[in-house]
Amino acid sequence: MDRRTFIKSTGAAAAGAIAAPAVWSPARAQSRQETLLIVSESGPNNLDIHGVGTNVPGYEASWNCYDRLISHEMKTLENGVKYYDRDKFKPELAEDMSTGDMSVTFKLRKDATFQDGTPVTAKDVKWSLDRAVTVGGFPTFQMKAGSLEKPEQFVTVDDRTIRVDFIRKDRLTIPDLAVIVPCVVNSELVKKNATANDPWGLEYTKQNTAGSGAYRVAKWTPGTELIFERNDKWTCGPMPKVKRIIWRMVPSSGNRRALLERGDADISYDLPNKDFAELRSNGKLSIVSTPYSNGVQYLGMNVTKPPFDNPKVRQAVAYAIPYQKIMDAVLYGLANPMFGKPEGAPTEVKWPQPTSFVTDVAKAKQLMQEAGYANGFEVPLSFDLGFAVVNEPLCILVQESLAEIGIRTTINKIPGSNWRTELNKKEMPLYTNVFSGWLDYPEYFFFWCYHGSNSVFNTMSYKNPKMDELVEGARNAAATGDTPTYDKDVKGFVDLAFTDVPRIPLFQPYSNVAMQKNVSGYEYWFHRRLDYRALVKA
Amino acid sequence: MRSIVLKRLATAIPSLLGVIVVSFLLTRVLPGDTASYFAGPAATPEAIAEVRKQLGLDKGLPEQFARYAVDLVHGNLGNSLTTGQPVVTEIANRLPASGELTLLGLLIALSTAVPLGILAAVHEGSWIDHLCRVIVTTGVSLPVFFTGLLLVYIFYFQLGWSPAPLGRLDVFYTAPPQVTGFYLIDSLIARDFETFRAAFAQLILPAATLAIFSLAPLARITRGSMLAVMGSDIVRTARASGLTSKTVILTYGFRNAMLPVVTTLGMVFSFLLGANVLVEKVFAWPGIGSYAVEALIASDYAPVQGFVLAMAILYVALNLMIDLLYGVIDPRVRLEA
Asked: Chain B interface, mutation test: which of A205, A257, A421, most B Cβ atoms within 10 Å?
């Protein structure tokens, strides 16, 4: 080799080495175009929502890999975002739904098959619904929310017809059949893989998707990545556009943003609000922000113990919160304010809606004096470290303001794994938390959060017979279609919640999604996870 | 030689048993309730009790420990609740990822730190000594996540030279067939050079981050122990005998200065393997450190216990190797034993 050829060859090699990451073989470029790369902080621990302790990312896998009897239609909001229509259902596995007085009957599609080729029958549907109400834990609890409690309620009429009997009239029964939990599982396949200890085959479906859905999980490396392949034989809706979805876990939010800005990742939905606000203003990506349906972040107070057993003290706190500062400095405007309703504006029949509280320190001080706490008191203020990006600055702002009316707080940070234990104990005197219900009905929210049956979400241990009467009144009125009574009761419980203020609504958070400009078709769902079936990559 | 190995292994057994008991007890006294975490956000007290029963957490501590010990004897470390996988497979998959990264990082650190340390000691007080001091101080005072993010910002975000920090391989490559679990080696075995290049490109930044951090102790120790040796009688004698300065420094000086360097190396290695969580987080690296930390956050007992146990075994093995290496480097150690 002479000097000249040596220089040439090393030069070429060096050029190749430098350009390496950007050069793709043609096959890879092709697959890059048909593949969507999603990056998020954490991934599923279980692919089956019926499993023990399936986490929220696991819901996304279930939603896209399984079908339900019915689903929701989409409507378009004023800002052009597709949003699920709470009141309009569309058939998914069912082709027909007929609602009787005390039952609903579904006729299954003729052409629907599971991913292994076996047809979907009424037997599979019954087995799946039985499974959901029997396995215990979250799925069973969610089914109960729609009065779906016993296997006897699900009756196979013939091979393609299934009837669901009501045990009581409940407006939430049909919507509850369209949430993630009542998914239809390939019963023969799962039974084959079940054991005596595990009759419902939960171990098998934890690792494998056994549904009829539009996607299947092709490869799962827990904690690292999840690869979905499209099911080309899917018949329950229009064929999805994206062939392959790769979902990678990228723990650092800074890197998720860098990946988006460099154009390497297509979608991410869990960045800090500050990043979303900045990405929106620099305009390189499309950002969609949608308020959480039926969700509110609030400041809660334990009403069973002094000083918060005194409504005057609770009102004083409500007048001392720096609402606007929280909106600007913590949320960067990415939330709906839940305060400052103009004086005299009527209460509406909807939830969430703003309170009439505003920041008014003088009034707060006066209320403290009337309550006999002119010198204030000391109290810990707790928050969930799992959501520290919002909770920590929020609590610091609240701490500063409460100090002005003599309430001296110490901030108590609770690790995510411990937060639910603490909520369950119902001992924290003052804390911030967020709750949002899958089923978007005011009485559903109030039943969980304000009713005297004292569920986990009634974190304040608030009990008021008047409140219970109104909430139950609204539930019954909804079941029988008595609109005037329903409206009166909903307004009644909202007013009562705002005068008694066991919890102070702060804001309705936004669910934010950042996408490349060539990605479209995002749909907002009550579960706030992505629906891959509608996504398009140009 | 064999008796030394066996004797050393026998002394390790009590400490391993201790680690098993302590890691079990420690995970139980951690704050946080596994059952209410995994029962989900919408759990009722009954639902939580049900999950607790399913996980076997309603039993007494002695019974839980007995079950754990029996499983352990069968080579079963239990299941992780956060990832849903058996802990043994997870550790087996993740250990090579951490190992490959740590070894490469250490290699870079070693090949920079040792020459730097020797030069600094030989030319004490010169510019190279000052350079060594500056590099060492910077390396120690920059937190790893900061160095990592800085490197990503410069080489990926600004310059675009480095591939996306997405773990061990770019999304569109498939991992080579597993032989050792080290992608660099496995891809060479499979003669898949494109994958080799891709895996190597992913490794450069995290390995450099680790190297910058671990450079400091290695360079300091090399310099310090070289200084001591260079001032000793043997070196003076060697010099007086008219040997070349290369022979004096490398053969007589460095060989005698190597013992503390090897000890530090062993410590740095075992420390990095478990503790480079931050580097793993920044580079989305599917390593063992981030696995343990995630499990800890979720009060997921099995992986934490498995991790502690794996680390203990590794530590014992590493110490054994270092002890044997002592004998190779310095015959006096062998004779004393």
From this structure: A421
Is A14's Cβ below 8 Å from some Cβ in B? no
The interface predicted TM-score (ipTM) is 0.73
Please give chain A's pLDDT, 538 residues, in tens: 454 544 444 444 444 444 344 444 555 556 777 899 999 988 888 899 998 777 888 899 999 999 999 999 999 988 889 999 998 999 999 999 999 889 999 999 998 999 999 999 999 999 999 999 998 777 888 888 888 999 999 999 999 999 999 998 888 899 999 999 999 999 999 999 988 888 899 888 988 999 999 999 998 888 888 999 999 999 998 999 999 999 998 888 888 998 999 888 999 988 888 899 999 888 889 999 999 989 999 999 999 988 899 999 999 999 999 999 999 999 998 999 999 888 888 888 888 999 999 999 999 999 999 988 988 899 999 998 878 889 999 999 999 999 999 999 999 988 776 777 788 788 899 999 998 888 899 988 998 899 887 777 888 989 999 999 999 999 889 888 889 999 999 999 999 999 999 999 999 999 999 999 999 999 999 999 999 999 999 8
CA A254 – CA A252 distance, rounded (Å):
5
Q: Buried b / exposed e across A84-121, counting CB within 10 Å, b at 16+?
A: bebeebebbbbeebeeeeeebbbbbbeebbbbeeeebb
Whether B156 sits inside 8 A of A37 (CB atoms) is: no
Q: Are strands A161-165 and A215-221 parallel, antiparallel or unpaired?
A: unpaired
Contacts of B158 in chain A (CB under 8 A): none
Q: Tally the C-alpha atoms within 13 A of residue A55's C-alpha that lie toward its C-beta.
A: 16
